[in-house]
Amino acid sequence: MSRPLPLPVEPAAASTWPAPFLLYLGNAHDDLAGKTARGLAFWRPELCVGQFRDRDCKTTLGITDLDFAQARAAGANTMVVGVANAGGRMDERTIEHVVAALDAGMNVASGLHQRLDSQPRIVEAARRNGRSLFDARNPPPTPVGNGLPRAGRRLLTVGTDCSTGKMYTTLALEKEMRARGMAADFRATGQTGIFIAGHGIPIDAVVADFISGGIEWLSPARDDDGWDLIEGQGSLFHPSYAGVSIGLLHGAQPDALVLCHEPGRAHMRGLPHYAVPSLQATLEANLAAAHLTNAEARFVGIALNTARMSEQDAERACRSAEDQLGLPAQDPVRHGVSRIVDHVIACFPN
Amino acid sequence: MSRPLPLPVEPAAASTWPAPFLLYLGNAHDDLAGKTARGLAFWRPELCVGQFRDRDCKTTLGITDLDFAQARAAGANTMVVGVANAGGRMDERTIEHVVAALDAGMNVASGLHQRLDSQPRIVEAARRNGRSLFDARNPPPTPVGNGLPRAGRRLLTVGTDCSTGKMYTTLALEKEMRARGMAADFRATGQTGIFIAGHGIPIDAVVADFISGGIEWLSPARDDDGWDLIEGQGSLFHPSYAGVSIGLLHGAQPDALVLCHEPGRAHMRGLPHYAVPSLQATLEANLAAAHLTNAEARFVGIALNTARMSEQDAERACRSAEDQLGLPAQDPVRHGVSRIVDHVIACFPN
């Protein structure tokens, strides 16, 4: 295993992609393709002046359509390429649009795999206009994890699978805690979360030896009695990504864990031959791993994604999970997370 | 989590660093610094024509000292920079020597963090002489893991900690199995192993999302009744590196596991505040994780590193481990691994 050599990349300073934003949807073919833009528009509407949609775009964020000059005139400082094409690649049309946005005077930030600075025409346009490029999937240099106990309280969302609502749940917890006057900060680990938070680490893009260290860097010691609310990724039961999930768990040293799950999912995401684990098995595996770096780690709630269920079935699913694990279970979208936050406060009195 | 985009790096073809080798020790200040060169000299002596030591070198491999011209004249095709400096960096002196080796007509391969091709003088010398550069820590592009069952038998070494003898044990198993006429191939996951095997993947250097996929790539399906013997890394109980270890375990889908341990170690490597887990706890955690991708995974033996113990204490440690877990326990250096291989054959009859 390697020693704490910093990665040979430049840190991305938050100041290189200042709000407010124009959200670029391009020719997004469905709602899922515009996931990053949608997350930003939902959680940070005050930072979004409008959206840019190309002629074949099949989705909308329900905000003002603007071209590049209009967006700049409306105050947009950065265009966020918040659209996932197949393979995360930039097609010719996207490159043209990025160049046009730079020429209109905006910076450009992207969550694509393919880096903006891998395109000579984009680099040249940024230079010509004195604008910045920001790739959210470009991890900052971080040390190797050391597992040393650190001050502060941390909550981590974990899941039975990928895409069970971990980011949404974490942001809902931040909102609810802040509404109650608690100090609480969302800590982003994926590109959408990074755009929403304004900083973070794309933890699935760091070099394998640096996963836990990246999370230690993301959520350093704090002494204000506040909470770091860390966005989880993947699942200990996902054969493709469990390495990311366990490194994240070890680095987070969470005091509190929230279990995210979509009832009724047929199989693990992308893997029809893998069944979704039970809530109980997921809880046990995460506790066992979490106790390596925080012997006091405990679950404080269950967040169910019941979007595809009737109101009645959703209620039933929550009651069933609650009875089974003895923890408050809510759908953050339908019900909010107030009962989970109540339980956090009960478990961790000041 | 990201989708199967190949990494933006070139695959390192095995043919770019042909044997035989000159082993470069430079000014290695102790035996540990020359670990990679030592591994190569021990396991592949027939491929090593000699060593190059600078005036302040404090270690030797016990093979012929040669300068660059002598090495080339003796048939060396590649100089292997098998020395770990602090931080894995190349100092000025090393750069000069690499250039001199290229000028003498050898290719150069390195296991350092800092890439050979990051040094303009080295790149220029390689071009000038029509020679190749190979960085063992530069992972090949691989897909994301899919967890699909694949044909063939695989054995993985796992450990209570880093540096417990996993590579040595895996190579000893290859040697013993081949001596019995079994088809068995060492699969390397670290830079020393890669130099020994001639190919492999530096699994701690891949992007986090690709850990299990990298191991699936390393040990594809085979139908000759032979074994892939996969070199493990780290430990599920190491807070810095468990992500690598679990991804490796999931990707390997091992039928057989060998537990590597150094009795008497005071604490986890580099982490004085972390105790070494028990053999039983390590066995259970690895089995639980392994069963996700291979429900039949089982332990077949224990390899103890008793280098710092007396003969009597070593014997006692092996008997104790054996009684505790009901598996053959041997020190591969003192005792070989014949009883472990006997047990593999008993557990997996043809």
Automatic annotation (TrEMBL), chains A, B:
<dbReference type="InterPro" id="IPR011669">
    <property type="entry name" value="DgcN-like"/>
</dbReference>
<dbReference type="InterPro" id="IPR027417">
    <property type="entry name" value="P-loop_NTPase"/>
</dbReference>
<dbReference type="InterPro" id="IPR035402">
    <property type="entry name" value="DgcN-like_N"/>
</dbReference>
<dbReference type="InterPro" id="IPR035086">
    <property type="entry name" value="DgcN-like_C"/>
</dbReference>
<dbReference type="Pfam" id="PF07755">
    <property type="entry name" value="DUF1611"/>
</dbReference>
<feature type="domain" description="D-glutamate N-acetyltransferase-like C-terminal">
    <location>
        <begin position="146"/>
        <end position="341"/>
    </location>
</feature>
<protein>
    <submittedName>
        <fullName>DUF1611 domain-containing protein</fullName>
    </submittedName>
</protein>
<feature type="domain" description="D-glutamate N-acetyltransferase-like N-terminal">
    <location>
        <begin position="67"/>
        <end position="139"/>
    </location>
</feature>
<dbReference type="Pfam" id="PF17396">
    <property type="entry name" value="DUF1611_N"/>
</dbReference>
